[in-house]
Design brief:
The complex is a heterodimer of chains A (426) and B (411).
Chain A: E1 2-20, E2 23-41, E3 44-50, H1 54-63, E4 79-83, H2 95-109, E5 114-132, E6 137-154, E7 158-168, H3 177-192, E8 201-207, H4 209-220, H5 226-230, E9 251-253, E10 275-279, E11 282-283, H6 290-296, E12 303-304, E13 312-313, E14 317-320, H7 327-332, E15 336-339, E16 344-347, E17 352-356, E18 359-364, E19 367-372, E20 375-380, H8 381-387, E21 389-390, E22 395-401, E23 408-414, E24 417-425
Parallel strand pairs in A: 4-6, 8-15, 14-23
Antiparallel strand pairs in A: 1-2, 1-5, 2-3, 5-6, 6-7, 8-24, 9-10, 9-14, 10-11, 12-13, 15-18, 16-17, 17-20, 18-19, 20-24, 21-24, 22-23
Helix pairs in contact in A: 2-3
Chain B: H1 2-10, E1 13-29, E2 32-50, E3 53-59, H2 62-73, H3 102-118, E4 123-139, E5 144-160, E6 163-171, H4 178-192, E7 201-207, H5 209-219, H6 226-230, E8 246-250, E9 271-276, E10 279-280, H7 287-293, E11 301-302, E12 311-312, E13 317-320, E14 332-339, E15 350-362, E16 364-368, E17 372-376, H8 377-380, E18 384-387, E19 392-394, E20 397-399, E21 402-410
Parallel strand pairs in B: 7-14, 13-20
Antiparallel strand pairs in B: 1-2, 1-4, 2-3, 4-5, 5-6, 7-21, 8-9, 8-13, 9-10, 11-12, 14-15, 15-16, 15-17, 17-21, 18-21, 19-20
Helix pairs in contact in B: 1-2, 3-4
Amino acid sequence: MVQFYDIREVSSESLSINLENDIVEKPKYDLSMSKGFRVLKNGFWGLFFGNADDKVGLKLAEKNVVSKGDAEVVNVKSEGKFLFKAKINPKDVDIEEKINLLKEIEGVLKSSKIVSTRIAYLENVRKFSYKDSNGSEVYYEVPRIGVIIHAFAKGETLQFYSKRLLKVGGFEVFNNKPFELAEEVKDVLNKLVNAKTPPSGEMNVIMDSSLAGVFIHEAFGHAVEADHVLQNSSVVADRLNTKVADESVNVYDDPSIQEFGFYSFDDEGVKAEKKAIIENGILKSFLHSKETASKLNGKAGNARAQGVDEPLVRMSNTYIDEGNYTFDELLENAEIYLIGSRGGETNPATGYFHFNAQYGYIVKNGEIAEMIRDVSLSGNTLKILHSIKVGKGVKFDPGFCGKAGQLVPVADGAPPSLVKAFVGGA
Amino acid sequence: MEAAKFLEKNADAWEIFKAKEHLKVLKIENNRIKSVNEGLEEGYAVRVVVNGKVGFASGNDLMEICKNAIKIARISEERLEEFPFSKHKKAEGIHDKRFDESDNWLLESAEVVLNTIDEFGCIINSTIEAGKNEVTIVNSSGLDCTETSTSFGGLVEVVREDSSSYEIQESRKMDVDFEWMTKKAAKLTLEGLKAVKLDKGVYDVVLSPIAVHQLLFFALYPAFSAENFLKGRSALKIGDEVGKITIVDDGKLKGGLFTSSFDDEGMDTKKTVVVDRGEFRSFLADFKYSKELNIDATGNCYREELNSYPTIAPTNVVLDFKDKVELEGEKILEIHAFIGSHTSNPVSGDFSLECMNAVLIDKERIPIKTAMIYGNVYEFLKKIDGFGRDTRQFENTITPSILFRDVVVSG
């Protein structure tokens, strides 16, 4: 017997333009639409994606129910419509103005050491409609926009540095921010090409907001995705309602904040809401899809997909909330200060993580000293969360999370935080 | 074709890329078959040259895409005169007609995974995939080519308590060995339960084919791109020293995972010696950058997805070294995979990577909890002292395990 079905239709319209070494390159426009169908029958999921009529699509999905299983879903009906209105719709802005923005950013980057630049402009509108066997009907439109600034410079070594500004919304998100980021890229690169390699070993490390944000997303966030819990590949699978971090630690996932991971409804049509993951050091909840919520008695609302692929349990805007330490207090006990992230990876089953910072500084006697490059940070998540000292002021950094090969926009946030972890370098 | 007529009239040069994909994915979660997902998608990507400048658009509606490509070419400053015409030598071993029987194959493979894991008492999660791709490229230089290829593969992740491991295998044919994959990941997982701390020190290290690919794909291969070189983003120039190994990019390798008769803009694929016994000999280029660099195109144009802008990427990268070594009997640190390899510095080649499933072999096998290696890929390649005999293809790279001497490893 069919227990549940749903139909998703996603259309995506995107424009991207690169300015590479002052030349407008790779201008790209994409408008695509596809549909995804899921049928849950005898505890087994059959899925089909492609452009098909609803009836045909559901039949093709049902044909893929080839066995029996123990899957179930929470049966919730959701209805709603949400149109995110950008203050300045990018479609009303001439493409020449978008190119001008890139050229002005390029102008800021001019410096004798910078040998190559790549600045990308991106805009996208995702239109999502959803219906299911419980009578749900949901529709939303959300625009996203941003610039990614990459520069390469040569000194003692060839180095690159990048910053990105990616948000939900329209042209209003820019203001002066891209130019401030470009200034930062130039200043950092000019020093980075002559920076030294870092020391290695276990040390007291300050992660800046960006790196601490990546830490909470990668090292902890993935372990609280309930599909990992059900796959027995989460280090916190049996830790619900127990202490997993110092009592000063609070961690939330909040898709309603207008950062890059924003959504109004998830890809199972469930209205988005803020979830407390850790409060006062206690693990309060996992993140759920309709299926994991049914199995683990949780709350759905974190199922997301790239296009019409299979919705998986995902994060949105995930952050460590503000703590009590001033930056100077963190500096007093620090040996290294690490800034930004070139990405990272975690084994959620063991809790071991590994990140690369964009650069860092040696800290001597509470003062920031010389710059270091190509520095990585690794350790065990739970060990670190028990001794973390959280600073003030949450800042978000946007990015794309690539779980199971599906990219979805997210933002990670945190205040600067002090941890004890392994530092390594080239 | 209506679209071709429209483009002929409105563009100086044009190219229509059509992709049709049929994909089937079976998922095993927690030792049970959970779902089968099937996708059937078709779409187009069009490049045009208008007034000597290139525009690109993609999607489902071909006429709409053609109009959008012409519209966006207006603001482009990317120069190109024409799209390539090329004759193709047919690639071998990339199409298995048995794709039509893949429903049964998925279920039979899942049975093998589940039966194999039974004796190990571990949790297994797995995805098993069968895919068929049809690519057609037509352009204003008279090119009109089509090719169908298939791929079959699997990923198994085995977990027990706080230990885990994974193994991946992919093939153009329906010959993936799920028993071998499952056993290998399960053995490493069980071994990992007894893992101990490693003392920081200098070790002779053996990287598995997986680890070799993860290191080189992010830290070395980007430097092979002619575009990166011309834009000042490659650490390499012709004649530079790259260890003592030989690296060949071979787009026609029989049965290779990245083998095709023609690349993603229709150029003939071929064998390019990139590094010859340690000497850097050739960049990899698509049509545009081969002209700018004044070399023959190497057939390395690549589109990651239908809507991706064509770029330069390696195909099958075959590694070779003059000395084969028997790795038995030596004190070595064997590394199965890395965590976080995409964080390597693609420009300078610097890397620092966390090891996964590392085992110290010193008469007996001693599994290691954590180990990190770091360095610069160009220096690191000089430490190679021998190749093993367990050659396989993992993603782009075809290599056996490789022995590196005197590597600093922190525990």
